[in-house]
Every structure is written in structure tokens, then in C-alpha cells.
Specification:
Elements lengths: L1 E2 L6 E2 L22 H17 L3 H13 L3 H13 L3 H12 L5 H11 L9 H16 L3 H13 L3 H14 L5 H16 L1 H15 L1
Antiparallel strand pairs: 1-2
Helix pairs in contact: 1-2, 2-3, 3-4, 3-5, 4-6, 5-6, 6-7, 7-8, 8-9
Length: about 210
């Protein structure tokens, strides 16, 4: 594969002039320009991932990720999560989340839960999902904040559920008024739930002892 030395366009057929910019192809090269190289690397990595070649995708992304490319870092987190390497995925997702890249963590968390969503029966899968979703929730992803709260209710961690529903209400994201309203209703319902009442009572008794 050759590339235009003027604009970096990939050349399917090499002629005298680039079909993209019209420049001379007298010095066309088999190595893309730097910007195109980065773009081509990302595309190749995505294609490898889609084809199930996670090792190949990771190999392509690692140099860019190590150099600080945010998109590559996020994608490497996705590839790592698909490969079952939770620690590496969490590492990359955490680095990019504060830079506005919370898609990967959200995707991985949702995928870990599977088609059952918050009703996922696997304790291990719920735990993995919580690790991923906490990253995106911490940077303000309202949807994932809500999913986290429901996951904590499933595991009867009422304090954590209350934390996330309270934060949803406080942040009041105008893009998700329904989730904000739902959080308000869920808190009211939780306060009346026998399990929550028993939890609070036990905690108060423990504080007195």
C-alpha cells in the first residue's frame, strides 16, 4: 500500500497524480504521513478488535496509548476488558475518564452485565461492572450513576445506592430529567423498604455498642 507524499491519502491505484489532492505522486511512499499513520493505526486496531484479534488490536494501540493518545488509551481499555484483563482496562479507563473519555468504561460495564442488565445473576460480573461503571459515574455519567445505584440495591449495599441517587438529584442533569425523578422516587421507596430499615437499625445499634 502506498500513500500520497502531499496529503497522506492511501492510494488504491498509483498513477501520476493523487486523486485526493491532485499533487504529484513522483515521490509516493509506502509509509503514511504521521497524522494518517495514527488514523490508520486506530482503524486497523478497531478492525482487528471487530475480527476478534484482541492481541493484534492491543499491539497496535499500545504505542499510541503509551504516548498519551486519549482515543487509543480508551480503545485499549475496551480491548483489555473484552480480553478479560480487568486491571489493565481499569488502568486505561481511569487515565482517560477525567479528559472526557468515559465511553469505554461505560461500554465495558454495560457489557459485563450482559443482556440481563442490573438483574445480572452473577456476583462476579456485577462486581466487574461496578468497577467499570464507577469510573464513568465519577466523572458525571448520569446513566451509569443510576445503573450503579440499582446494582448496589441488588447487593443490599444501601449506603452506596443512597450515595449515587443523592448525587443524581444534586447534579440534576437537564439531559436526563427522567432519571433525576426516578432517583427521587427510589430514595423515598428505599427509606420505607424493610431491608433498609433493618440495615439502619443494625448500624445504629452497632454505633452504640
Amino acid at each position: 500500500m502506498r500513500f500520497c507524499p502531499n496529503c497522506g491519502h492511501r492510494l488504491e491505484i498509483v498513477g501520476k497524480f493523487c486523486p485526493e489532492c491532485g499533487g504529484s505522486l513522483a515521490e509516493s511512499t509506502s509509509v503514511p504521513a504521521q497524522a494518517t499513520s495514527r488514523e490508520e493505526t486506530i482503524k486497523l486496531a478497531v478492525s482487528a478488535c471487530d475480527a476478534g484479534d484482541l492481541t493484534g488490536a492491543a499491539r497496535l494501540l499500545e504505542p499510541l496509548a503509551q504516548a498519551g493518545d486519549l482515543e487509543a488509551m480508551d480503545l485499549l481499555g475496551v480491548v483489555s476488558s473484552d480480553a478479560g484483563d480487568v486491571e489493565t482496562a481499569v488502568h486505561w479507563f481511569t487515565l482517560v475518564a477525567n479528559e472526557g473519555f468515559d465511553y469505554g468504561a461505560s461500554y465495558a460495564g454495560t457489557k459485563a452485565l450482559g443482556p440481563s442488565g442490573v438483574d445480572c445473576n452473577s456476583v462476579d460480573d456485577r462486581q466487574i461492572a461496578r468497577r467499570y461503571l464507577t469510573i464513568s459515574a465519577e466523572v458525571g455519567n448520569t446513566v451509569d450513576q443510576s445503573v450503579l445505584a440499582h446494582l448496589f440495591i441488588v447487593d443490599k449495599d444501601y449506603d452506596s445506592a443512597q450515595k449515587w441517587w443523592t448525587r443524581i438529584i444534586a447534579e440534576a442533569n437537564p439531559e436526563y430529567p427522567g432519571i433525576v425523578t426516578e432517583a427521587q422516587g427510589n430514595l423515598e421507596y428505599m427509606f420505607q423498604d424493610p431491608g433498609y430499615v433493618a440495615h439502619v437499625t443494625a448500624r445504629r445499634l452497632g454505633d452504640r455498642s
